[in-house]
Amino acid sequence: MKIKTLVGNGIVAALYIAVSFFIQPFGFTNIQFRVSEMFNHLVVFNKKYVYGILLGVFLTNLFFSPMRAYDLVFGFGQSIISLLITILVSRFIENMWARMIVNTIVFTITMFLIALELHLAFHLPFLFTWLTTAIGEFVVMAIGAPIMYLLNQRIHFEKRV
Does the entry feature the keyword Transmembrane, yes or no (predicted)? Predict the structure, then answer.
């Protein structure tokens, strides 16, 4: 891994952790608005960002999650699965907006893993919890898409790692 890629991913992980820290109460419940999830859109600009995002998710769940063991399995697993699906599908989609829409949909649908986690840990109703976590994820990813797109106009994410 090049130094440039390593540093870029370190910055992404640090940003993910910092943003998650400030929104802690809203990032780990059955109604989640983990604002740092908008960084998931970075993989549509360059798949090398997967390392920083996953490191950020892992460390956030390790340090801040009240359900550490569950989140390290389900939360981290959901991120791995969703990011890999997005990376694979993005190979066939050239339009950046279309990639971000697909990414938003993938992350929203895979929130069933977080709903399963909350169902197992707290016996919350699975379908309702999937709905509430999916809505939160969709809102964050949908609002995050234009923000990341505008940031890319200035920063050029594809060239930074």
Answer: yes
